[in-house]
Specification:
This protein is about 55% helix and about 15% strand. It has about 675 residues and is α+β, with helices and mostly antiparallel strands. The longest helix is centred in the middle third of the chain and has 28 residues, at about 385-410.
């Protein structure tokens, strides 16, 4: 691949590897700065040696990789707010008892069933200045209306650190928040919230204000709510008001990417701007004016869209494309992609861990690299057929590139993605051009019905197309087991296959065959590990009890009738089975005794009945039975007591005290999460 010979490619690779390494190793800042200083000294020394003494050596190349690697690691550490002494994570008591907190609303998120959610910036704890992002949760039945960006709040409350997953193989929401520099959540009582009459009017406030004005003006002109929520997502990247049903439909149809502003959307915007600026002459001054207008328009669009990773990535990349086009210079798309990656990660290294960021760049690189190969397979003479053939090849190229990563994260694959894109992309181009025009006019409180109604109808047809594709559920492959080994070996195969197809040779074919063997070895390794595993798990389900016993790839479920009946829809159970490459073999009622390996387990339900002769190693308590636990512990002498989340919390406090008296460990699943024996 010639692109790897480009010096910036190697620098970017080293930079990205540095970010990844620092993320997992978490080095001390002082050590990292010392290594970086040494690398800065080594770099000119290696250059001097290579140029004057050691000809044709790899010393300078290694020093370049090392320097870019350490710059990447240092960039991540310096941008990680938890390393800063002023960050609230270094406060001694804010996680233990109520404190006076001063904060400002930065962004409104999609709410949950019971709470409105916001990203808020902390300003003060007590009288001292502190910094950092938190997730603010406000009950929907609160007396306060929806907050807006810029609201200054004074709250007395306790911060709660991000929790680990409640159940095995569950999505780690705490880690997800930490990647976004959010390390705690706040659940304040409404009577302890004070709203300042002042507003913090920064760029985020004005961007939010513009979005709110656009939405209000469209609503005022009877733009249907369902279509409006999709329009705002398509054009402004705001998905807070879209219903879960619509999001699921787009996801199952393989079109979820169009609800996040990405390269497709920004590309349409750039074409639209280029078209309307065509009357400006291509003189030196005219070209400069057009370039400034385009760059300012793209930057403004990014801010209004909330500066999401996909928006920043797309705007940055197309800004370089616009610069090259206006200056009449050929633009190497590979170099443009690399420059945009490096530039974005220098300012926001945490974007590397954003799923949308990863999928967007892989999709773009796949389109640029693979689509010319696919389109060369057939050249239709009919222009209409050729147009749809190009759309189809773009769709397949993007899907091939992103398929392993999509399955790894979401464990599903939309089988009719190519039909979706064939139907959607032509309509989407019309929606984007018309939508941008309508949004701009709506910002000035002018929404002509001749423009707004065609936009509304177009989105209505778009939703119907998505729903029609989604109705063929048999083509949606779900719950696909996939882990990191299969992910890496799959990408090795895809890359090797494309390199071989572009310029076939025996050596390249050998690499393809090796990559196929790597996939087989990965699968056999997984199968061997799964078959050798045994575990017994009590899950964390509110007001319910669920136990599984897994032997290899077969899992037995123990639960009440309702859970057993709806086991195929139980997301917690499905995540566990998928992650462990296993299937549900049996479903049974919970019994009062269980045996796992050498452990005897006594399960006490609401009846409170038990046998004093069992002498269990583990006592599991469910459904808040009326028992004298202290007396029971003296008689049975178990090694540990486990109380699942079907028990009342106030009773569990007494049980914990009884266990502490007897010096027996007490595991409250509602607090500590699931319990596992293996």
């Amino acid at each position: 691949m010639k692109v790897l010979q480009f010096p910036l490619s190697r620098i970017t690779i080293g930079f990205v590897l540095g970010i990844l390494t620092a993320s997992y190793i978490k080095p001390a800042p002082s050590l990292l700065l010392g290594l970086l200083a040494a690398a800065f000294l080594l770099f000119p020394t290696a250059y001097f040696l290579q140029k004057n003494i050691l000809k044709n050596t790899i010393v300078f190349g290694i020093s370049t990789y090392l320097l870019s690697f350490l710059i990447g690691a240092t960039t991540l550490v310096t941008h990680t707010e938890s390393y800063q002494k002023t960050n609230y994570t270094h406060h001694t008591t804010v996680f233990e008892k109520p404190q006076f907190l001063s904060l400002v609303i930065r962004e409104k998120l999609k709410g949950s069933i019971s709470n409105d959610r916001y990203i808020a910036l902390l300003n003060k704890i007590g009288t001292k200045n502190y910094t950092g992002r938190i997730l603010l949760n406000i009950r929907r039945d609160s007396v306060y209306p929806t907050f807006v960006t810029g609201n200054l709040l004074h709250i007395t409350g306790v911060l709660y650190k991000n929790k680990i997953p409640n159940n095995p193989n569950q999505f780690d929401y705490g880690a997800y928040l930490s990647k976004k520099q959010i390390y705690a959540q706040l659940y304040p009582d409404s009577e302890l919230i004070r709203i300042s009459p002042e507003l913090k009017k920064d760029i985020w406030y004005y961007a939010s204000n513009i979005r709110s004005t656009i939405i209000a003006n469209l609503e005022k002109n009877d733009f249907h709510k369902k279509e409006l929520s999709v329009a705002i997502a398509l054009i402004l990247g705001q998905k807070q008001d879209i219903s879960p049903e619509i999001i699921q439909s787009y996801q199952f149809a393989g079109a979820i990417h169009i609800l996040s502003v990405s390269g497709l959307h920004v590309g349409f915007l750039l074409l639209f701007l280029t078209f309307i600026l065509r009357p400006i002459p291509n003189t030196k001054r005219g070209t400069l004016i057009k370039l400034i207008i385009i760059l300012l328009s793209l930057a403004s669009f990014a801010v209004i869209a909330g500066l999401a990773p996909s928006v920043v990535r797309s705007v940055t990349m197309f800004s370089f494309v616009a610069i090259g086009y206006q200056l009449r210079r050929s633009v190497n798309i590979y170099h443009t992609l690399l420059v945009s990656v490096l530039l974005i990660l220098v300012f926001q290294p945490s974007f590397l861990f954003d799923v949308g960021f990863q999928l967007s760049y892989i999709a773009l690189f796949s389109i640029v690299w693979l689509q010319p190969l696919l389109v060369s397979i057939w050249t239709p003479k009919n222009k209409a057929i050729n147009y749809f053939w190009k759309i189809l090849t773009v769709s397949f190229a993007a899907q091939i590139g992103t398929m392993p990563l999509s399955i790894y994260y979401f464990h599903q694959f939309p089988g009719l993605f190519f039909i979706t894109n064939l139907l959607v992309i032509p309509l989407l181009s019309f929606i984007m051009i018309l939508g941008v025009l309508v949004m701009v006019l709506a910002a000035f409180d002018y929404v002509p019905i001749l423009l707004s109604k065609p936009l509304e109808w177009s989105i209505y047809f778009l939703n119907n197309i998505i729903n029609s594709v989604t109705s063929f559920e048999q083509f949606i492959i779900r719950d696909i087991p996939f882990n990191i080994y299969l992910l890496l070996s799959s990408y090795l195969f895809i890359i090797a296959a494309i390199v071989w197809l572009k310029k076939p040779s025996f050596n390249k074919l050998a690499i393809v065959l090796v990559s196929i063997i790597a996939i087989q070895v990965s699968f056999m390794h997984i199968k061997w590990n799964v078959q050798s595993q045994q575990e017994w798990v009590i899950f964390n389900l509110k007001n319910n009890t669920m136990i599984t016993e897994r032997n290899g790839n077969k899992t037995a479920l123990y639960a009440d009738d309702s859970i057993r009946k709806n086991s195929s829809k139980n997301t917690v159970l499905k995540s566990y089975l998928t992650a462990n490459f296993s299937v549900l073999s049996t479903k049974e009622k919970i019994k009062n005794t269980a045996f796992f390996k050498e452990n005897r387990i006594l399960i006490i339900d609401s009846t409170g009945m038990y046998s004093e002769e069992l002498r269990p190693d583990i006592i599991m308590i469910t459904q808040s039975p009326k028992i004298n636990l202290e007396r029971m512990l003296q008689i049975l002498k178990p090694k540990i007591v486990v109380a699942d989340n079907s028990n009342y919390k106030n009773i569990q406090k007494h049980w914990r005290q009884s266990c502490e008296k007897q010096k027996i460990p007490f595991h409250a699943i509602g607090e500590k999460g699931f319990f596992k024996l293996n």
